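Input record (one chain):
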Amino acid sequence: MSPSLSRRRLLAAATALPVDLRAIAEGPASLAAAARLSGRSFGSAVHGEAISRDAAYAAVVARECHGLTPELELKWAAVEPRRGELNLAPMDRLADFARAHGMAVHGHTLVWHRSIPSWAEAALRDAPDWSLIHRYFGSVIPRYGDAISRWDVINEPSDPQGAGGLRASPLLRAFGPDYLRRTLETARLFAPRGQLLINEYGLEYDDAEGQARRKAFLQLIDGLRAAGAPLDGVGLQSHLELARGPIAQESLRSFLRELAARRLIICLTELDVKEADDALPAERRDAVVAAAAEAFLDAALDTPEVLSVTTWGLSDRYSWLQARGADPRRRPFPWRDNASARLNRGLPLDAALRPKPMYQAMLRAFRTAAAKTGRVSII
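The corresponding structure, as predicted from the sequence alone:
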């Protein structure tokens, strides 16, 4: 495709092609294929160690995903645990896996208040020096320029209870609120053609907390835009919590339209579902998880600027969420194995790498979005 082909011509060409109604009706062979029907990509966060030691899991990731997000390997504390000693071998292996399978990598994350090495926190506290950030970015971003075109430059910077709507962090204390603009500008130096994102959580619900977080986030974005910061898009983490009630679909659509009106791309970056009652039968647990995921995606995928969906893990085997009760004997319903009873069931595949109702719900959501818009992949 010519790089001069405009977005308008691209969309016109796409809608001129016949929609593959059979593929939509019968169902694609993977989540990646389903996402492509709606003109989007699908990926999963992965831990490189699991990819290396679990061949079955690695094969499922390669089959189901367009791309992957490193859970730990790109965080500053993992990259430079000691000053001047870079530990990039784990990320190199993950990038090699992605290249071997034709997958993109989502660059998560450069700056996060919970992953700043202790030595850097001490240095920034004693003598603020921006060269630490500049050197760190320069060591990482160009190294993966062929694999990563989209970066979560700043993770979780907003806080409606914080001063100026910002979360307290070592960089805020060292450099003040302008650290956000400087961070994005430094990333742009090393990724001149990359897409630079701010990734945030807690934006999906319409309760008081969700409303406050959305307001603070939009104010942060508007402030950065006014300051001329190079911000291309946002990541909505999308950690769904069943205890917070159902997704308010119209409020979510309205919020996404506000983001799109600011000419931002939108990525759903960390989708999973935290259960509220893990003492229910497995079938019931899976049904309510699937319903929440489908309701969320049905609303979110109505916004064309939502370009990708990434789950925070693909299988319950490697979920960061655990069921609340550690002892499976407390549950009144039988399980095929005790290990599964301890797991939160909020990802598309179970611990045995088998598709669950959430997997089918995601397929339906992608197919529904494709049928609504008539968009098909022409790449």
